C-alpha cells in the first residue's frame, strides 16, 4: 500500500507549510525542503550548485542546511546509479520514528562535534549507512576508538565496524576490555 504522502492527490508542499511549526524548521530549512520537494516532483537532477543558485546561498551554507535536515531525519541522501537522490520521506514520517530520529540526530551532532566541523555530503551518507547497519552504541564506540588513535575519518570508523562485526564483538566486550587496533 502506498504511503499517504505518495498519493497523487496529496499536495506535499501544502502539508509542509501547514505543519511548519510542528516540523520545527528554520525559514532557510523550510525553503530548502520546499525547493527539494518541487525539484523532485518535476524530476530535476538536484545538486549543491543548483540548490545554491536557487536559494542564493553559498554551497557551504546549503551543505550546513542539508546536514541539519539529515540529522533531523527529514532528508535522506541516497547514491543511485543515476546520481544522487534527495529523499524527503522522513519529513512525512515524523510521527513514526520520533525517538529514533532524536537518537540519530544526536549521533550526527556527536560526529560533527568530534570532527570539529559540519559533516560533508559523503560523510552524511556514510553515517546514514552506519545507522542502517549498526546499533548507535557500536557506532559511538567506533568513533571513540578512532579518536583514541587519532584517525578520525569515516573510512577508518567503517573499517572498525566491519572488523567488529566480523569478529562477533558484543557491546559489553567493547566496553570492558582493551581493543586491538585494526590494521
Describe this entry's structure for a reader.
With 183 residues, this protein is mainly alpha-helical. The chain is built from 11 helices and 2 strands. It has a domain at 4-96: Winged helix-like DNA-binding domain superfamily/Winged helix DNA-binding domain (Arc Repressor Mutant, subunit A). Strands 1-2 form a two-stranded antiparallel ribbon. Helix 5 packs across helix 7 (98-115) and helix 7 runs parallel beside helix 9 (136-148).
Notable traits:
two-stranded antiparallel ribbon; 5% strand; Arc Repressor Mutant, subunit A; 11 helices; mainly alpha; elongated; 183 residues
Q: Number of helix segments?
A: 11
- Please identify the structural class as seen in this structure: mainly alpha
Radius of gyration of CA atoms, rounded to a whole number = 18 Å
Q: How are the strands of the biggest sheet laid out side by side? A: 1-2
The SSE order reads: HHHHHEEHHHHHH
Shape: elongated
Summed over residues and divided by their number, the pLDDT gives a mean of 82
Helix content, binned percent: 55-70%
Regions with pLDDT < 50 over 5+ consecutive residues?
Answer: 96-103
- In CATH, the homologous superfamily of the domain at 4-96 goes by the name Winged helix-like DNA-binding domain superfamily/Winged helix DNA-binding domain
The top-level CATH class of the domain at 4-96 is Mainly Alpha
Number of E-state strands:
2
